[in-house]
Amino acid sequence: MSTPPAELPFYVRPMQLADVPAVMAIEHTAFSLPWPEGAYRHEITKNELAHYYVLCFRSPSAPQQARVSSWWRRLRDSLRPEAAAPREVLLGYGGFWMMVDEAHISTIAVRQDVRGRGLGEFLLLGLLDEARRLGAQTATLEVRVSNTVARALYTKYGFRETGRRVAYYHDNNEDAIIMTTPVFTVGNYWPMIEAHRTALLARLRQQLKEGWQVE
Ligand SMILES: CC(C)(COP(=O)(O)OP(=O)(O)OC[C@H]1O[C@@H](n2cnc3c(N)ncnc32)[C@H](O)[C@@H]1OP(=O)(O)O)[C@@H](O)C(=O)NCCC(=O)NCCS
User: Fold this and answer.
1) How far is the CA of 107 from the centre of ligand 1 (A)?
2) 40 to each of 3, 27, 95, 185, 208, how far by Cα in Å?
3) Which pTM was predicted?
4) How do residues 64-100 score in pLDDT, each as one tens digit?
5) N or C: which terminal CB in the chain sees fewer CB atoms within 10 Å?
6) Could you identify the atom of ligand 1 that is nearest to the CA of residue 143?
């Protein structure tokens, strides 16, 4: 996995079975047609084409406490080891299927109360990094016509409309737009991704400096 700067408490790691309950809690608030829990279990244990990840936040306070070298704090932490244990909070998830050299992004979601802060971008970057590392040349996905937020995110990351599936979503017969990236390694696509990454990391740092508290 690509490693974010050490001072940032956000990271993307592979999804594990133990993550599924927290994933489902977000799934039910994020989608009108949520996947059943068994679908995620199947994806991460049985589907060899599937690659699923979670976006996590690690409380920065715990490791800093451990670094403070006051004798009483070390004594207290040794008596209460749970006080020093870093706390991991799952804030989002996403995944893709590797179809030969194309990564088909099957889902992506961020916890509702932390949206609009750049974490959807952070997660999408994590997926694109992993897709590229695993040999994908392009990424593609389907998105509801009405999902303007997700469409704006994908457009920012170079996805363009390449097709449409009529009445794809059976809850309201809405069309899906198929959006696809250019070939990762051609032209200025990946330099554009790196420019977004640089700007995003600066934004996340700034938000934290300004006192953004993630619970
Ligand atoms: C789509 C989703 C993952 C985006 O995550 P997010 O953390 O809110 O997005 P970010 O804060 O990283 O924003 C990234 C970009 O998305 C777009 N965006 C975010 N919020 C937006 C809003 N309220 N209106 C319009 N565009 C928006 C912008 O292009 C933004 O870039 P900018 O900050 O430079 O303008 C999130 O909204 C979500 O989980 N939605 C529900 C599930 C879903 O619809 N998934 C997509 C299925 S195809």
Assistant:
1) 13
2) 25, 11, 10, 31, 32
3) 0.90
4) 444 455 655 666 656 665 555 678 999 999 999 999 9
5) C
6) 48
User: Residue 12: what pLDDT?
Assistant: 98
In a domain, 174, yes or no: yes
Q: Domain for residue 37, yes or no?
A: yes
Residue-wise pLDDT tens digits, 157-205 = 999 999 999 999 999 999 999 999 999 999 999 999 999 999 999 999 9
Into how many domains does the chain fold?
1
What average pLDDT score do residues 147-157 get? 98
* One-letter amino acid of 79: L
Q: What is the DSSP string of the chain?
A: -PPPPTT--EEEEE--GGGHHHHHHHHHHH-SSPPPHHHHHHHHHT-TTEEEEEEEEE-THHHHHHH---HHHHHHHHHSGGGTS--EEEEEEEEEEEETTEEEEEEEEE-GGGTTSSHHHHHHHHHHHHHHHTT-SEEEEEEETT-HHHHHHHHHTT-EEEEEEEEEETTTTEEEEEEEPPPTTSTTHHHHHHHHHHHHHHHHHHHHHTT----
Q: Is 154 a catalytic residue?
A: yes
Ligand 1 centroid to residue 187 C-alpha, Å: 26
**Ligand 1 atom 38: the closest Cα is on which residue?**
109
In which domain, by residue range, is 112 found? 10-209
Tell me whether residue 215 is in a domain: no
CATH number of the domain enclosing 201: 3.40.630.30
